[in-house]
């Protein structure tokens, strides 16, 4: 006997398959409606999305590149905008289906609704697959191409060493002032910074003004002009000249400037360079500050730099009494280290180093008596009133002979070197300047506090057979040498260490 379904007032038979269903305007079950009507028709199931591997951004048509993380809301919205016909249905739910990050595939699971017949709404779930296609964005294309920079900052200093730029490089790294540069090129007298925007170049000039006295000059070059829209394309260049005076330099101030600074002695030394030049009279401990405006109104140069210093042996130290901060005035008897065994010539010098020097120490200074300076301000001084020697800083020669492995290191900027390789003597001079800069960091805690030092690799901390030390060398090491403690070192990570922003109105930074 054939079974006949019992109909009730709440159920009817489907007109296509005869299944019992609740009454609806179509008199059809859901499966039969889906077989006849596809609400996903017109919505693509496969699409392509463009991705730039250099800056890790996705293309949002027509020409906007936006950064998005995988399975983020921003990436989901970007993918949904790529689907044509999605505006003709009602989107109920959308989400990601997990795929391998390196598979270059992004899958979405979409739930949509649409009214197919009168008062009949059909809901359907389907998947859409996006293929990630690599495409270089316009910004990265400009960076990779040549001569596409919009602004350039040329930093120069007219000195015979690189110590200033070595210190400036560490300041730039610490405060992340180079994050907007598209290229950094090293030249003979300084550095060139290239930018894609003029505002980024102006930001670098402001940073340099906050850390050292300088003067800058701006220029522009017309590249092209659109006569229809009235717009022009320019390239901007900013020439920055750093003050040619460095820490520990010997200076002879012009008489006019010396009188304006409290009638300080013209023959002074530079003990610090920040927003201005700080000078010291070693005979009286008098200090003065030469501002940026005052210097460039009457520029002057150094009599001698650190490369012109001679090494002396301390024979006697007699404090004179006056103390000003870390400076202690004392009469010091010294003899040239190179004169030992040749003559018995000694010198008496009044110096500010009375607090750190003891008999038997070594000290670096300028030999005024036997030097010949080509300077009009120095020639106007009375030679009989000038000291024979001006002492600058303590030296550690015995430690330097055996100090080869440091437990710390510095980071460096990714610079593009000159096309022509430096000569052998120039390369040796560069290495010598870098070694002197490292020694200055070790010996000067105040200077060391303004830069970031990083822990070196464990392999570098172990002495190699080539620099093995014997017992005689170990006995010559100075006991008071200022070693860099591990508390001052940062872990040498590959990511940025979250450098703080530099406040130009805050603490003054020292310039090497």
UniProtKB/TrEMBL annotation:
InterPro entries reported in the protein's UniProt record: Nmd3, Nmd3_N, NMD_SH3, OB_NMD3
Boundaries of every 60S ribosomal export protein NMD3 OB-fold domain copy: 309-394
Keyword entries, A-Z: Cytoplasm, Nucleus, Protein transport, Transport
Localisation: Cytoplasm; Nucleus
Biased composition (Acidic residues): 468-490, 498-512
GO MF terms held by the record: ribosomal large subunit binding
Gene Ontology biological process: protein transport; ribosomal large subunit export from nucleus
Entry GO terms, CC: cytoplasm; nucleus
Residue ranges occupied by any 60S ribosomal export protein NMD3 SH3 domain in the UniProt entry: 245-293
Domain Nmd3 N-terminal: 14-242
A Pfam family hit: NMD3
Region (Disordered): 454-512
Keyword Nucleus among record annotations: yes
Purpose: Acts as an adapter for the XPO1/CRM1-mediated export of the 60S ribosomal subunit.
Family indicated by similarity: Belongs to the NMD3 family.
Protein's name in the database: 60S ribosomal export protein NMD3
Species of origin: Actinomortierella ambigua
């Amino acid at each position: 006997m054939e079974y006949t379904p019992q109909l009730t007032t709440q159920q009817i038979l489907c007109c296509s398959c005869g299944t019992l269903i609740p009454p609806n305007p179509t008199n059809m079950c859901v499966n039969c409606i889906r077989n006849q009507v596809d609400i996903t028709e017109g919505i693509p199931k496969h699409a392509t999305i463009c991705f730039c591997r250099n800056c890790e951004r996705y293309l949002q048509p027509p020409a906007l590149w936006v950064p998005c993380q995988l399975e983020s809301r921003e990436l989901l919205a970007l993918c949904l905008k790529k689907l044509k016909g999605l505006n003709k249905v009602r989107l109920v739910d959308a989400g990601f289906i997990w795929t391998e990050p390196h598979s270059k595939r992004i899958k979405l699971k979409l739930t949509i609704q649409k009214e197919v017949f009168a008062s009949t709404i059909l809901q359907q779930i389907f998947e859409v697959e996006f293929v990630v296609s690599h495409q270089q964005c316009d910004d990265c294309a400009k960076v990779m191409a040549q001569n596409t920079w919009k602004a350039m900052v040329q930093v120069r200093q007219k000195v015979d060493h690189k110590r200033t730029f070595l210190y400036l490089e560490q300041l730039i790294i610490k405060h992340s002032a180079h994050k907007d540069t598209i290229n950094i090129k090293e030249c003979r007298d300084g550095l060139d910074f290239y930018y894609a925007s003029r505002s980024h170049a102006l930001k670098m000039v402001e940073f340099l003004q906050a850390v050292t006295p300088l003067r800058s000059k701006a220029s522009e070059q017309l590249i092209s002009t659109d006569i229809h829209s009235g717009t022009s394309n320019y390239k901007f260049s900013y020439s920055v000249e750093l003050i040619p005076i460095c820490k520990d330099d010997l200076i002879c101030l012009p008489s006019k400037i010396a009188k304006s600074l409290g009638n300080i002695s013209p023959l002074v030394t530079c003990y610090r360079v920040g927003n201005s030049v700080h000078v010291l009279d070693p005979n009286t401990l008098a200090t003065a500050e030469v501002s940026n405006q005052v210097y460039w109104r009457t520029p002057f140069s150094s009599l001698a730099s650190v490369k012109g210093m001679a090494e002396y042996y301390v024979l006697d130290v007699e404090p004179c009494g006056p103390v000003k901060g870390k400076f202690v005035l004392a009469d010091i008897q010294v003899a040239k280290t190179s004169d030992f065994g040749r003559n018995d010539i000694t010198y008496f010098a009044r110096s500010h180093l009375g607090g750190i020097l003891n008999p038997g120490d070594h000290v670096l200074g300028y030999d005024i008596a036997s030097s010949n300076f080509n300077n009009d301000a120095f020639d106007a001084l009375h030679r009989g009133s000038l000291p024979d020697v001006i002492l600058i800083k303590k030296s550690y020669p015995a430690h330097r002979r055996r100090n080869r492995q440091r437990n710390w290191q510095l980071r460096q900027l990714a610079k593009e070197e000159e096309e022509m390789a430096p000569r052998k003597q120039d390369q040796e001079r560069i290495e010598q300047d870098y070694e002197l800069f490292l020694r200055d960091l070790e010996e000067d805690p105040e200077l060391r506090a303004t830069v970031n030092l990083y822990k070196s690799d464990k392999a570098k901390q172990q002495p190699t057979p080539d620099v093995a030390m014997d017992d005689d060398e170990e006995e010559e090491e100075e006991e008071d040498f200022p070693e860099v403690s591990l508390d001052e070192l940062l872990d040498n990570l590959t990511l940025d260490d979250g450098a703080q922003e530099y406040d130009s109105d805050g603490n003054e930074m020292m310039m090497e």
